[in-house]
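hiii so my PI (J.) wants the whole complex modelled not just the main chain, which honestly fair. so below is everything: two entries, each one labled with what it is. i double checked the lines twice but i was tired so who knows lol
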Amino acid sequence: MTQQTSDSTKAAQHGHEHGFPWQYVLGYVFSLILTIVPLWLVVNHVISMSPLTWAILGCAVLQIVVQLFMFMHFTDSDGGGPAYHVFTITNGLLVAGLFVFASLWIMSFHFQVS
Amino acid sequence: MSATVGNANDAHGHGDIHVDYPERPIQYQTEDGALKIAGFWIFLATDVVLFSCLFATFVVLRTHTAGGPSGHTLFDVKGFSEETFILLTSSFTGGLATFEMARKKKFRVIGWLIVTALLGMSFVGLEVSEFVNNVSIGATAQQSAFLSAFYTLVGTHGCHVSVGIIWMTCVMIQVAMRGVTPITARKVFMVNLYWHFLDVVWVFLFTVVYLMGVM
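here's the output for the full assembly
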């Protein structure tokens, strides 16, 4: 049974019809920048500890977003309906964030217990 | 409307592949392919949860060095930067393999997969030499909680990469033998999803373990 090709699939196919892999090259360049910047910030002791931590974490999150969308075609559906896997991965990421954050939080009470 | 397409690249003439959705991108053209790729995304979500547990353990135990070496003493900026750029580049070249797969360029797919796997092998080689070096100076997994957590987290990622290299080699052989069909395209797509995911995990590893270790 045929289904209408969704817009996101058309976009993916259109991207592939171009002779040049723009998505991947741009994704690579952005990822390189988002790797070099935190590396440079840390190695050169440019800013103090706390803002530095946020800066490098911010770059990491941005780089992951870049890679999810530009390498992994995160929101491209299979052509048969919505990109259901977005929900699955978002769920996984929320659980992951919770595990890490909640572990840090609960362990921060160490001075209150014997 | 479904169609049956002969596998033009199949020299052995094994059965035709039943294409359910010829208008879709090649990896989704069989019902089976679309379902398996969706299932693989679910697996990746579980792998994210796995790594999050290891990350949570590491960040809680990062200061528990038991008088032994800390990240500051152990981590070599040049070493982990090389690993990072190698893995990032391999993720890029894997993406190029997917790009060529969509255009059904069999030899380019195999070529880019070979480059990706070779970069992956150099990544693993660098990581193994890093671990061997650490152990030789007494920074074993038994030394401290920090080191146990470090080896478990980074080692699990390294094992994932190693398995990925083996998997990628199997996929390249299949593409070489059968060409780019809806089935081999699905396999190329999935192994590259796995590989991109591993680089995503490494971005966090690089930031949280190595960069914060040497800050």
